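Attaching the record inline, Q. Sequence:
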Amino acid sequence: MKPTVSLGILIACWLIAPARLLGHHSGSEYDRSRVIEVEGKLLEVAWQNPHVHFMVRSTDRGGKVITWDIEANSLSILRRTNATPDNLKVGDTIKIAGSPSGRAPNRMWATNVLSADGREIVLGPEIKPRWKTSVTGATTTWFDGGKASNGSAGIFRVWSTKLDDPAELWRDDYPLTEAAKKARAAWNPITDTVAPGCAPKGLPTIMGQPYPIEFVNKGDTILLRLEEYDTVRTINMAPNANLDALPATLLGRSKGRWENDTLVVTTSRIAWRYIDSSGIPQGNSSMIVERFTPTRDGTRLDYTMTITDPQTFTRSVELKQSWVWRPGETVKPYNCVAEKKPAQR
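Structure, as predicted:
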C-alpha cells in the first residue's frame, strides 16, 4: 500500500487535552483549528519527556517522500493513562492524526495513533477516539478527586493535579507596567522559548507544572519536590536564617514559617527571567509569598501565590490553584531527553 497524507478540518468540539495540559505543553507552533492524517512507515518512536516523539516516512500526493517529525504529550502525562508504545514497532505502517505545524511543513502535534495491528492509541486525557470505538490511553487518573485521609498527615505527602479543577494558576489580565507590556508584546511564542529542551524552569513558572509534587520534612529545611525536570526547592525553616547575602538562583532563596497548618514561604533572590510561559518578564527585585494549606479532611491542598514585582506589575498579583491527594501517587523520575532538531523536508 502506498503511504498517503490526507487533510481535514478539525471540528470545534475536538479537544486535545484539558486547559492545564494545553497551556503547559501545546506550544503555539501548531494550528489547532485543523487536523491532518499521515500514513507511513514508522522510523522511530521515543516514549520520553519532555515530549513523546515519532518519525514517520510518508509520500505526498505528488509522490515526494516526506519524513515527518511528530511530537505529542509528555511521558509524565501518558504514564498516568494506559497508553503504551507496545504495539508500535519500527518498520510498521501506521496512521497518525494531529495538528500541523505553522513553523515547518513536516511537523505535527499527534493526538491519535493507529498501529499496524489495528489498535488505536489516544495520546492524552480526554482525547476522543478517531478510528475505533475501543482505544488504549482513555483510562486515566488525571481526573480522580482527592481521597479523605488522616488529617494528622498534614502537608508532608504527594499532591496531584486534578485536570478538571477550574482553579488554574495563571491568568491573562495581569496589571502590567508599560515596560512589561512592551516585553510581552515583543515575545514571539513560536521563535522564543521560556525553557528550551531540558533546560530547567525557575520560580514562579515551575509552580504551574501539572505533575505531582511532594513535601519532605528535613527539620530545619523542607524540600518541595516537583516532577518536572526533577526540580527540588529548598525551604529554610530556621527563624534567624539570613538569605539576603546569598547569590540569586533560578528558584530563588526561600524562607518558611508556619501559621497553624499553613506553610508560608517567602522567596526572593530569584534569577529566573519570567513569570509564566507567555513571556511576561520578571524583575530582579521580585518577591513571592506562597501559602500552602491542606484541608481538614486531607483531600486537597489549597495554594495561593502573591507576587510583588514593581518592574512588572503595577500592584501585587495573587494567583491560586490546588492539588488533591491520591493514595499511591508518587513523584516519578522525569529523565528529560533533549529533543532533536526538527527534520527538514
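The chain has a mean pLDDT of 89. The chain has two domains: 5-122, 151-324.

More tomorrow.
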